[in-house]
Q: What sequence folds into this?
């Protein structure tokens, strides 16, 4: 058992070294979210009104946290796809380590990677005027939720990597699926402004749930759904947790099996 | 260390959806031997290596490596083997040294041991000075050497080297051959694949010729060449009009009827006479007053071996999906 942990940690350290030495591959977790914070805070923000009042910049932060952490799935899938194209997968498979160690190592590295945008965005948020207005306990719960959510989306990344073997392919799919997923949500605009089907999608989109949950936990505008909103928006924390548990309990085992099958043969 | 052969494979078949990569391969390699799998792209060399190194499972048949079944006991097999895949799989974003330390730790060596082992191997493969550089800056030859060093970290009993010199320039190839000689002296069993008869001859004492997923011949280089007919006398004429008279003279100095290729203005015939045959033919040509562009002895190539063994030129398909 300790051998399995040791191998996992060795492979996780390798993943962290990759990130350090290839900072350009981290832009989706570093420069991009900061850019979004600035762009929406100063360019689009003036045109968007938060229902129930309050500062748009404070509303914005929960959304950008939820979006950026969802992009973590993309980072995981990219790392796995690179391993596949450069032969690392076979190298690991020819070594006397447990079958799950490479994937577990990537998961640990991905989770550590997630702390980067969490810290950077918190700082960027503070600069543009975002503040936490709730209690210390709620704030801790908010950050805890971010890490739990980051852990859950790793398995979406593993699933992607099981289907798509090349970094280019992963990039394409991320742009077509993950990117819109994070926009058809309460990320940047209040859901009430969206038309028909998009509105329903956004109401049940897990990205909206996490955005809403963070706004609620940090005491930011948009943390309380207007009366008549669906259950998912009334209970963003509970609904987020349902998604996180579902991803970890259902998606993760399926993804791991699909990935292992995809790299055999 | 267990007794019995290092590698023992019976009736290995591998089918991918519609293609048959292996059509029944039997192999046995005694401990300490060096066997070369010789064959063109797509012959099934890589698939054989992938099965023996537990990277893929056979559709039929079974294999034991270091005494362990590759399907039932893959981890036991992995503890005892080293694999250098076709494209040297070094981690480009790690330094040479970090690559080796990582592999050592994945062999469950304590970190201190992994480090000293890495330094030892860097020195042995002439990489001490560049061990601290990221391997993406390495030359092809350095990558190959590092890849080989990585296969030795776990002190394997059996080494699998899939086309170890592909992509190297002639000097790099020579260097690598020297390194492999050292390994073999250490008593390791080696199974390597190659497309070049010359390389198989240089490195292995035993050659299995593979084509269309089967072993079609087995033996040392000498016996394989004997099947082809040994060295070839090879003459290129200056003037096409001389070809017939040249063929006549070659016929006198060679062991069999010469073959004439008008397009390349060449005459070829097998000979067992070695350099003596050249001297003889040279004299005859001079006496007849025929000028030639080139006169020499040619070793049989893989193409010749194939032509003789299968009656057709080597298959030129792409190496199976695995490659």
A:
């Amino acid at each position: 058992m300790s051998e399995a942990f040791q191998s996992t940690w060795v492979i996780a350290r390798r993943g962290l070294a990759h990130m350090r030495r290839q900072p350009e591959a981290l832009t989706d977790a570093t420069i991009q979210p900061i850019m979004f914070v600035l762009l929406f805070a100063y360019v689009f923000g003036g045109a968007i009104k938060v229902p129930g009042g309050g500062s748009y910049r404070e509303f914005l932060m929960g959304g950008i946290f939820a979006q950026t952490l969802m992009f973590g799935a993309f980072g995981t899938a990219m790392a796995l796809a690179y391993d596949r194209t450069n032969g690392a997968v076979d190298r690991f498979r020819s070594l006397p380590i447990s079958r799950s160690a490479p994937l577990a190592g990537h998961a640990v590295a991905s989770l550590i990677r997630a702390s980067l945008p969490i810290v950077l965005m918190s700082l960027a948020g503070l600069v543009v005027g975002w503040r936490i207005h709730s209690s210390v306990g709620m704030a801790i719960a908010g950050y805890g939720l971010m890490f739990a959510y980051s852990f859950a989306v790793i398995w979406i990344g593993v699933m992607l990597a099981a289907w798509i073997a090349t970094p280019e392919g992963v990039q394409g799919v991320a742009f077509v699926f993950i990117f819109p997923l994070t926009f058809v949500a309460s990320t940047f605009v209040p859901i009430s402004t969206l038309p028909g089907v998009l509105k329903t999608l956004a109401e049940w989109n897990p990205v909206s749930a996490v955005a809403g949950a963070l706004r609620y936990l940090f005491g930011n505008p948009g943390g309380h759904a207007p009366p008549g909103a669906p259950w998912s928006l009334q209970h963003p924390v509970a609904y987020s947790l349902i998604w996180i548990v579902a991803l970890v309990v259902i998606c993760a085992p399926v993804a791991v099996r699909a990935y292992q099958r995809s790299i055999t043969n | 260390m267990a007794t019995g052969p290092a590698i023992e494979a019976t009736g290995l078949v591998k089918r991918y959806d519609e293609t048959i990569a292996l059509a029944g391969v039997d192999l046995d390699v005694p401990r300490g031997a060096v066997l070369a799998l010789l064959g063109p792209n797509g012959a099934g060399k890589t698939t054989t290596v992938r099965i023996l190194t537990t990277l893929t499972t056979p559709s039929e048949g079974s294999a034991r490596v270091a005494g362990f079944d590759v399907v039932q006991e893959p981890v036991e097999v992995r503890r005892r083997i080293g694999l250098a895949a076709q494209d040297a799989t070094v981690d480009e974003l790690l330094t040479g040294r970090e690559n080796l330390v990582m592999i050592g730790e994945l062999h469950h060596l304590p970190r201190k041991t992994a480090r000293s082992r890495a330094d030892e191997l860097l020195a042995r493969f002439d990489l001490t000075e560049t061990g601290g550089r990221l391997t993406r800056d390495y030359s092809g030859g350095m990558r190959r050497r590092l890849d080989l060093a990585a296969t030795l970290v776990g002190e394997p009993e059996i080494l699998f080297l899939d086309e170890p010199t592909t992509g190297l320039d002639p000097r790099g190839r020579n260097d690598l051959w020297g390194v492999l000689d050292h390994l073999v002296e250490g008593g390791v069993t080696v199974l390597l694949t190659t497309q070049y008869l010359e390389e198989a001859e240089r490195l292995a004492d035993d050659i299995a010729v593979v084509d269309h997923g089967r072993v079609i011949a087995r033996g040392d280089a000498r016996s394989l060449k004997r099947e082809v007919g040994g060295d070839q006398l090879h003459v290129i004429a200056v003037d096409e009009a001389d070809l017939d008279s040249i063929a006549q003279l070659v016929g006198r100095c060679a062991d069999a009827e010469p073959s004439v290729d008008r397009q390349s203005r060449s005459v070829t015939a097998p000979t067992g006479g070695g350099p003596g045959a050249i001297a003889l033919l040279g004299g005859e040509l001079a006496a007849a007053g025929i000028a030639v562009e080139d006169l020499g002895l040619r070793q049989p190539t893989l193409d010749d071996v194939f032509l003789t063994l299968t009656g057709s030129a080597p298959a030129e398909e792409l190496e199976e999906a695995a490659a």
Notes: DSSP finds twelve helices and no strands in chain A. Chain A has one domain: 2-263.
